[in-house]
Design a protein that fits this description.
Number of helices: 5
Structural class: mainly alpha
Strand order of the largest sheet: 1-2
Number of domains: 1
CATH architecture: Up-down Bundle
Order of helices and strands: HHHHEEH
CATH class: Mainly Alpha
Radius of gyration: 16 Å
Strand content: under 5%
Distance between the termini: 30 Å
Length: 161
């Protein structure tokens, strides 16, 4: 795997996250589709929860607030949105993780990437660090793309033109 390309891809995700959430208020970040689904605030919290796994895998310490983590796990109802972390705090946390992620990726090498990644959180099956990082990149990209639609549900113009 080319480390520079991996860093570039996560930098793109960081940029798309910023433009898709630019100008969105905390209230707007809680708007959900009428047929169910997630809102911007849940999605960002969910991605930060996943970034905690990613950062741990690449040797960087960062902790999502333990008293809030269950609100953002896969399959959570989203009904307790009144307990969500405010959007401005989530975005600050995103910035923190972005810097740590870039540092951690820069320190990777082929030996680390081909080594087996330990079981952690949602990841119990044996796999290499490279495959874990690639899966978490895919997961992040999937949800960041959804933010563009959520942004429009909140009444904002699309950010990616």
């Amino acid at each position: 795997m080319n480390i520079d390309n991996l860093s570039w891809l996560f930098a793109i995700n960081g940029n798309v996250m910023e433009v898709n959430t630019e100008g969105v208020t905390t209230e707007e970040s809680l708007i959900r589709p009428t047929s169910g689904g997630n809102c911007i605030a849940w999605t960002l919290g969910h991605l930060l929860r996943s970034r905690q796994f990613l950062l741990t895998y690449i040797g960087k310490e960062w902790a999502f607030p333990t008293d809030k983590i269950a609100l953002y796990q896969r399959g959570s109802s989203g009904a307790d949105f009144d307990q969500y972390i405010p959007l401005d705090e989530l975005l600050k946390m995103w910035g923190e993780t972005q810097g740590l992620l870039m540092e951690g990726i820069a320190a990777l090498d082929e030996a680390k990437l081909t080594a087996e990644a330990p079981p952690l959180g949602d990841f119990a099956r044996p796999d290499t660090l490279e495959r874990r990082v690639l899966f978490l990149y895919f997961h992040e990209t999937y949800h960041i793309g959804q933010l563009g639609l959520m942004r429009r549900l909140a009444g904002k113009e699309g950010a990616i033109k």
